[in-house]
């Protein structure tokens, strides 16, 4: 047992507290011992005086000396019938220095006299006055030396402290055994489960089952079990996401090859004799190019490699118009109940990666459109742009039903922050990553029954 353990410190504190308690009662105990000692001397002196009275107050000198020595006093004075009578006497080695009347019941005065007598090493002659036992007189008075009394008081204090020390050690051992069984044992069990779990966190069999009887330890076990289940579930989810990521990477790789072929065919459509085909061909080429770029980005994302933005300065209005045109066509094809409103100054120029910003705005606009279409009621999506001294700001708001609580709690987290039923949440997660790559921020300004609003902020200085 060491003092840096719970049981060791518990035992040490037990010893300290018990000894402290004994020290607090030491002075009162010694005070009571001193009073009992003086009363015993008075009783012995009274018995010695009775021997003299039984002989008609005539006794030999050597017998008188022996009686006084056995009583431990020098003189005995007995008052009877209002007459003070010196019964036994012997020469005093020193003058009387103090008088103590045991009929005085002042406790604190007794404590003060006891402490003084314990600390004083100089022998003194004192007078002690008390009440005779069995009504043998009005009072009895003796003179005695303080040295034997002080020695007896010290012996009593030492014995008391020795008993206290033994009691403290025994109590500490018993409490240590109790602490080992009731506290340390359950804590070691929790530590053992934590060690086993850390070695294999995916194994649900290593999750602790709360079984402690103590409320505090059981609460700790319950909290640990909850945390272990959450971590295990998170690890399993991450494993599934990793497997899904590998599958998506393979699909994106093959899809990129298919789209590359489609891009070549779309390029040839520009040479068609049909004017409508020639007008649609550039938009088809741009859409396929973005799909190819998305596949390449997905491959990079699966490798945990975020593509660095290629910065350029361009007008924001045409890019927003391109996003709105694509989403308008999708809205018309689905329900035709979504209107788009833009408020972007014609001369607003920003510095960003054009393709990445197009993806960010497309994801936000697509999420808003799908949320409105899910309500089967008409709605509006507004995209506005502005700038100040430090940032370019783009707002995307809608009049949809607002985000569900789960989406708000896991916003911008892949596969957990999906807005619509069946969604994966990848759109917002990718958008947030792309904005962070620009040194900017994407945040949800509001989301309630009147709709949602996102704010994209890009720094002017990068």
Tell me what the structure shows.
With 462 residues, this protein is an alpha+beta fold. It has 3 domains: 6-172, no CATH class; 231-305; 306-459, 2-Layer Sandwich (Heat Shock Protein 90). Helices cover 58% and strands 17% of the residues. It has helices at 6-53, 61-71, 107-119, 146-199, 215-269, 275-302, 316-334, 354-375, 405-409, 426-437; strands spanning 75-80, 83-88, 96-101, 125-130, 139-145, 312-315, 338-343, 349-352, 379-387, 391-398, 441-448, 451-459. A 5-stranded mixed beta sheet has the order 2-1-5-4-3. A 5-stranded mixed beta sheet has the order 7-9-10-12-11. α4 (146-199) packs parallel to α5 (215-269) and α7 runs parallel beside α8. The longest helix has 55 residues, at 215-269. The mean pLDDT is 79. This is histidine kinase. The chain crosses the membrane at residues 6-27, 156-179.
For the structure shown, list the relevant keywords.
462 residues; single chain; alpha+beta; five-stranded mixed sheet
Individual helix count: 10
Largest sheet: 5 strands, mixed
Strand order in the sheet with the most strands: 2-1-5-4-3
Structure classification: alpha+beta
Shape: rod-shaped
Strand content: 15-25%
Q: Radius of gyration, Cα only, in angstroms?
A: 50 Å
Overall pLDDT metric: 79
Number of domains: 3
Query: What order do the SSEs take from the amino end to the carboxyl end, as H and E?
Result: HHEEEHEEHHHEHEEHEEHHEE
Low-confidence stretches: none
Helix fraction, binned, reads 55-70%
| Straight-line N-to-C gap | 61 Å
The assembly state of the depicted protein chains is single chain
Q: What's the β-strand tally?
A: 12
Pfam families: HATPase_c
Keywords: ATP-binding, Kinase, Membrane, Nucleotide-binding, Phosphoprotein, Transferase, Transmembrane, Transmembrane helix, Two-component regulatory system
Organism: Paracoccus sphaerophysae
Catalytic activity: ATP + protein L-histidine = ADP + protein N-phospho-L-histidine
């Amino acid at each position: 047992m060491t003092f840096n353990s719970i049981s060791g410190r518990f035992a040490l504190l037990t010893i300290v507290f018990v000894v402290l308690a004994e020290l607090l009662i030491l002075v009162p105990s010694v005070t009571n011992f001193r009073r009992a000692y003086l009363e015993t001397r008075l009783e012995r002196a009274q018995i010695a005086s009775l021997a003299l009275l039984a002989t008609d107050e005539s006794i030999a000198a050597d017998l008188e000396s022996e009686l006084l020595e056995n009583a431990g006093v020098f003189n005995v004075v007995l008052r009877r019938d209002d007459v003070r009578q010196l019964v036994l006497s012997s020469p005093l080695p020193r003058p009387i220095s103090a008088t103590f009347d045991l009929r005085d019941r002042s406790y604190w005065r007794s404590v003060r006299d006891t402490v003084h007598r314990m600390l004083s090493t100089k022998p003194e002659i004192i007078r002690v006055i008390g009440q005779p036992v069995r009504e043998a007189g009005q009072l009895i008075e003796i003179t005695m030396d303080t040295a034997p009394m002080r020695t007896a008081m010290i012996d009593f204090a030492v014995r008391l402290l020795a008993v206290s020390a033994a009691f403290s050690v025994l109590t500490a051992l018993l409490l240590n055994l109790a602490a080992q069984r009731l506290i340390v044992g359950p804590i070691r069990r929790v530590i053992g489960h934590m060690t086993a779990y850390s070695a294999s966190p995916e194994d649900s069999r290593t999750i602790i089952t709360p079984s402690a009887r103590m409320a505090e330890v059981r609460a700790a076990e319950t909290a640990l079990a909850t945390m272990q289940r959450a971590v295990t579930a998170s690890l399993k989810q991450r494993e599934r996401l990793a497997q899904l990521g590998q599958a998506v990477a393979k699909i994106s790789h093959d899809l990129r090859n298919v789209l590359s072929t489609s891009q070549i065919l779309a390029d040839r459509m520009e040479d068609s004799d049909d004017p409508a085909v020639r007008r649609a061909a550039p938009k088809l080429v741009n859409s396929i190019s973005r799909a190819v770029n998305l596949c390449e980005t997905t491959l990079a994302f699966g490798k945990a490699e975020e593509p660095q933005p290629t910065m350029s300065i361009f007008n924001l209005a045409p890019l927003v118009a391109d996003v709105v045109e694509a989403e308008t066509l999708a809205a018309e094809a689905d329900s035709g109940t979504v209107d788009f409103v833009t408020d972007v100054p014609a001369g607003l120029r920003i510095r960003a990666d054009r393709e990445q910003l197009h993806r960010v705005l497309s994801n936000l606009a697509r999420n808003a459109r799908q949320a409105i279409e899910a309500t089967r009621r008409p709605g509006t999506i507004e995209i506005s742009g502005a700038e100040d001294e430090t940032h370019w700001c783009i707002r995307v708001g809608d009049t949809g039903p607002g985000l569900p609580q789960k989406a708000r709690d896991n916003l911008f987290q892949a596969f957990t922050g999906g807005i619509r039923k069946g969604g994966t949440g990848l759109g917002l997660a990718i958008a947030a990553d792309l904005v962070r790559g620009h040194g900017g921020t994407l945040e949800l300004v509001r989301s309630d029954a009147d709709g949602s609003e996102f704010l994209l902020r890009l720094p002017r200085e990068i």
